[in-house]
Design brief:
The protein is an alpha+beta fold and 230 residues long. It has one domain (18-228): START domain (Alpha-D-Glucose-1,6-Bisphosphate, Chain A, domain 4), CATH 3.30.530. The protein has 5 helices and 6 strands, in the order αβααβββββαα. It has helices spanning 18-42, 79-87, 100-105, 195-201, 206-228; strands at residues 67-75, 128-129, 138-144, 148-153, 165-175, 181-191.
């Protein structure tokens, strides 16, 4: 059993096990079927006021996306308590706080920690963050503790002759009311008409899968930040 920063034993991630994997699969299937009805609402799930359209750090990396999403959540903990969980995100690091068993069935080889890992608390610009051990990494492009971490992905970064698609994964934590936080995550995607580019960076099926996984991630980060807050 892992321990948190105060040495208190922590519980395993709820994303582990057959039941959790089946939950993730069921949610993905349901959202695929429900897309014609809730697709646009899903692109701004949990946001309030103008959060879905506000400028966020990293938007300039994909200035004219073909599609994007912004998800939001309130957390009853200050940004300083949320940031450690974001700082250590990644394969081979703290994991993604999602459906661990399901992701490992896809070969991700992740372990979703429930502890703050001191060795992964200082992300730096140009550090590579892996989503999958055999997939190209997403380098960090912006680090601004405790408010912003931005990852950017493009085949041009790994030696292709030209970029045929690009995306961002943006994490933003703003001070919220009553000492809490507003946690936002945004993805922006651009692609060419080529079918391979559309498959890798187009809205479907990425949007459905990323929504289910991002929602789980945000809920877990909220639980961890609130339970670890002094």
């Amino acid at each position: 059993m892992a321990a948190n920063r105060r040495g208190t034993p922590t519980t395993p991630s709820p994303g582990v096990g057959v039941v959790a994997a089946l939950e993730g699969i069921a949610l993905i299937v349901w959202h695929v079927l429900a897309t014609p009805v809730i697709g646009r609402k899903r692109l701004r799930w949990g946001t309030v006021a103008t959060e879905a359209t506000d400028s966020l750090p990293g938007d300039e990396l994909v200035p004219k996306p073909k599609w994007s999403y912004t998800l939001g959540m309130g957390i009853n903990a200050p940004p300083e308590a949320v940031w450690p969980w974001i700082a250590q995100i990644g394969q081979g690091r703290g994991g993604f706080y999602t459906y661990q068993t399901l992701e490992n069935l896809a070969g991700c080889k992740i372990t979703n920690t429930t502890a703050i890992l001191p060795d992964h608390q200082r992300p730096m610009v140009d550090d590579d963050i892996y989503l999958h051990p055999t997939a190209p990494p997403m380098p960090i492009k912006i680090v601004n503790p405790p408010n912003a971490l931005v990852l950017f992905g493009s085949p041009a970064d790994i030696g292709s002759e030209e970029s045929w698609g690009m995306s961002t994964w943006q994490f933003v934590v703003n001070p919220g009311p009553d000492g809490g936080s507003r946690f936002l995550t945004r993805g922006r995607y651009d692609h060419t008409p080529d079918w391979k580019s559309r498959l890798a960076f187009g809205r479907f099926p990425i949007e459905v899968i990323s929504f289910v996984m991002s929602r789980k991630m945000m809920l877990e980060i909220k639980r961890l930040a609130e339970s670890h807050e002094p």
